[in-house]
Design a protein that fits this description.
With 759 residues, the protein is α/β, with parallel strands linked by helices. Helix content is 31%, strand content 17%. Strand 2, helix 5 and strand 3 form a beta-alpha-beta unit. The structure holds beta-D-glucopyranose (BGC). The site of beta-D-glucopyranose has 9 residues, from loops.
């Protein structure tokens, strides 16, 4: 049991034993106890007999739901399908216009508080004032941590350590549940290949398999094996589906997705997330080739509920049902309610559509009652699974016993260390050894808030260690730090350049800390270019003229355009938005205490004009032509690129067979030695290529990855057991899986091994 759960039980115990008992002598006490026992057994027997089945925890969940449904009126059912807000909403994208008077029958609330008090007050109302005492389900956007904020998802994937991501999500779950939240709108598993889209920060990058693996890890981390545990929460796969394809990277835009691309690129993470048991799904804002996700019967019902047999429910995105009007498929809220509900959206998040119109639609015969029952059943099922009928309230525990627990902060720090990516390290500029004066320059140096990234939950800037603070601790007694801000994140003000140049002139090496403010990525935060504002680039240009080594430290929520900065820098380290651990992991990497092991989960284009550019594109008709005339056609840093301080020598890639039949498996192996001067963790990415197929397949597709710690001087073997049905097959435009006979290539870095699949 973790310290946190321990504390929780302690608290539950204290709460239940602290009632005042008047002083009595021994005989009186004994008599009282006997009476109390008799009374309580009698009452208990009485309650059991009269107790409705839905209140009896010993009954199977489905029987409890049957019983409860049979007692509910249409109005009560409809209310279970609505979600309003409770508390002060800090999300600028979703400021509610009218705060609803809290109804005791409401199905769910988005809960903005970070302690349980307000929840318990609202819950008491539902339990005591509603006719049937159905508990409310409390939700919150816990995206990369609740208070212990860890790196953004795009960064997490660069760790290639799903086990660690699972642990981080378990921390988020513990902090959330103990603070009054039962359900998170996470993970976001939208494959995203356009860095201009601000929400690229929230997902696991450009690759379907990577999104699937990390999506599953986070579902497991949030939910564990038992949703009724006081430290677990329900997950929500979002935004189903294709939101990452928003045209030109502009949020909420149209997406043009062919059936083939829908299935081979966007559906896999959802299919795997459902298999992993994700409790809920959120439908998307975008319309997929003309049909808004919120109104797509195909996506929400035929695939999710019928083909994949998902028994949880779908919540709309915020306001997305009533937005069917803006998307031109519904004339008014009533029609929007009808379309979304018939398509398969069970819960209305802040639309005023189901609460106002669903009952009428049923009475008019447009929406069948059976569908309402099915929707309510799904919502109730989650409430039962979470144990809310038995434990509707959250014990009110002091912050220090549930938030920022040291072992949890440690997980956030470790994840930040593993997710930072060393992009360039010319002539071993890093780690910094025997440097007497380090100049730390740039607008990110002293920042705290921006290191939290977007969707930072209940994170606070004051919990974060800035880059400068991290460096001060790390280099105390070994190097002297000098500081100048140089310039702001944007604008035209060059007045700080002179001081930056003076400071730099005194130093042996320049750490230039640049990047993006946290509001530059996330929802509704699209940018037309991946380049940093000109003022930041100019600062580096001026510093370059001094001829000192430049180490570029970049904190951003998207891949950046570095074609002008790269030639000016000796080393480049992408730290993303690392969360509360802030500058400490970075400082460890700079000093060499930590060996960087992150690798990119998304391509860094040479420049914005290359977008879309991603590693797993389909094969072109003329492989050597079709290049840009004005810029290179290859990216600056490819998917899976990332350097280490040690060197790994890859041995020969071998396969256990060169021919195999359907149903057989294949083992491919590659030995590896750490030949450098430091322990290190290396990730091997295993790609498959199908050179000739009945449809044009990508040039290569990631099918497996593994990260192993290899000590200095040691060797390890990386192994991948290939199951052709899973790894060589492909889906067609309807999601049907095919496995064709022929040649397949297994690729690790620049080595290829060929295998024949025969019938
Ligand atoms: C976002 C979702 C989020 C929801 C609730 C929407 O605007 O698209 O990702 O979960 O708001 O805050």
């Amino acid at each position: 049991m973790t310290r946190s759960t321990n504390n929780m039980y302690k608290q539950i115990l204290t709460v239940s034993t602290k009632y005042h008992i008047p002083m009595m002598n021994r005989n009186q006490t004994f008599l009282c106890l006997v009476l109390l026992m008799l009374w309580s057994t009698g009452t208990y027997a009485q309650t059991r007999k009269d107790q409705p089945v839905y209140k009896d925890a010993s009954q199977p969940i489905e029987s409890r739901i049957d019983d409860l449904l049979s007692r509910m009126t249409l109005e009560e059912k409809v209310m279970q399908l609505n979600q309003y807000t409770l508390g002060r909403n800090n999300n600028a994208n979703n400021v509610e216009e009218t705060v609803k008077e809290l109804s005791a029958e409401i199905g769910s609330l988005i809960y903005f508080d970070s302690s349980a008090g307000l929840r318990n007050t609202a819950q008491r109302k539902a339990m005591n004032e509603s006719r049937l005492g159905i508990p409310i389900l409390f939700a919150h956007d816990v995206i990369h941590g609740f208070r212990t904020v860890y790196p953004i998802s795009l960064a997490q994937a660069c760790s290639w350590n799903p086990g660690l991501v699972k642990q981080a999500c378990a921390v988020a779950a513990q902090e959330s549940r103990m603070s009054g939240t039962d359900w998170t709108f996470s993970p976001m598993i939208d494959v995203a290949r356009d860095g201009r889209w601000g929400r690229v920060a929230e997902g696991y990058g450009e690759d379907p398999y990577t999104n699937a693996v990390f999506g599953v890890a986070s579902v497991q981390g949030y939910q564990g094996d038992d949703l009724s545990s006081p430290t677990r929460i329900a997950a929500c796969l979002k935004h189903y589906v294709g939101y990452g394809a928003s045209e030109a990277g502009r949020d909420y835009m149209y997406t043009e997705i062919s059936g083939q691309t829908l299935w081979d690129t966007y559906m896999l993470p959802y299919e795997e997330g459902i298999k992993a048991g994700a409790a809920t799904v959120m439908s998307c804002f975008n319309d997929i080739s003309g049909t808004p996700g919120t109104a797509s019967h195909y996506i929400l019902t035929e695939i999710l509920k019928e083909r994949w047999q998902h028994d949880g429910f779908v919540v709309s995105d915020w306001g997305a049902i009533q937005q069917l009007r803006s998307q031109g498929v519904a004339a008014d809220r009533k029609e929007a309610a009808q379309k979304a509900f018939l398509a398969g959206v069970e819960m209305d998040m802040m639309n005023e559509c189901y609460d106002n119109h669903l009952a009428t639609l049923v009475e008019e015969g447009t929406v069948p009652m059976s569908l309402v029952d099915d929707a309510v059943r799904r919502v109730l099922r989650l409430k039962f699974r979470l144990g809310l009928f038995e434990n509707p309230y959250t014990p009110e525990i002091p912050e220090e016993e549930r938030l920022l627990l040291p072992e949890n902060v440690d997980i956030a720090r470790q994840l930040a260390e593993e997710s930072m990516v060393l992009l360039k390290n010319e002539n071993h500029t890093l780690p910094l050894k025997n440097v007497s004066k380090i100049a730390v320059i740039g607008p990110m140096t002293q920042e705290k808030d921006h290191l939290l990234g977007s969707w930072y939950g209940h994170g606070r800037g004051r919990d974060v260690e800035s880059i400068y603070e991290g460096l001060e601790k790390e280099f105390a007694g070994t190097s002297q730090l000098l500081y100048a801000q140089g310039c702001a994140f944007d604008g035209e003000d060059r007045s700080g350049f002179a001081e930056a140049l003076r400071t730099a002139a005194e130093a042996d090496v320049l750490l230039v800390c640049l990047g993006e403010k946290r509001a530059w990525s996330g929802e509704n935060a699209s940018r037309s270019t991946l380049a940093l504002p000109a003022i930041q680039e100019e600062l580096v240009e001026e510093l370059y003229a001094l001829g000192k080594p430049i180490v570029l430290i970049l904190s951003s929520g998207r891949p950046l355009e570095l074609c002008r900065l790269e030639p000016l820098s000796n080393a480049i380290l992408e730290i993303w938005q690392p969360g509360i651990a802030g500058g400490t992991p970075l400082a460890g990497i700079l000093s060499g205490r930590v060996n960087p092991s992150g690798k990119l989960s998304i391509t860094f284009p040479y420049s914005t004009g290359q977008i879309p550019i991603y590693y797993n594109h389909r094969q072109s008709a003329r492989t050597n032509q079709g290049k840009y005339q004005d810029i290179p056609s290859t990216p600056l840093y490819e998917f899976a690129h990332g350097l280490s301080y040690t060197t790994y020598e890859y041995g020969t890639l071998t396969a256990s067979a060169t021919t195999l039949k359907r149903g057989e498996k294949l083992i491919v192996e590659i030995p590896m030695s750490n030949t450098g001067a430091m322990d290190g963790a290396e990730t091997v990415h295993w790609f498959i290529r199908d050179p000739v197929s009945s449809i044009s397949r990508p040039v290569k597709e990631l099918k497996h990855f593994e990260k192993q710690l290899i000590r200095q001087g040691e060797s390890r073997t990386f192994r991948f057991e290939i199951d052709p049905e899973r790894d060589f097959s492909f889906v067609d435009a309807t999601g049907k899986r095919f496995l064709e006979a022929g040649e397949y290539q297994v690729i690790v870095k620049d080595q290829v091994v060929k295998v024949q699949l025969v019938d």
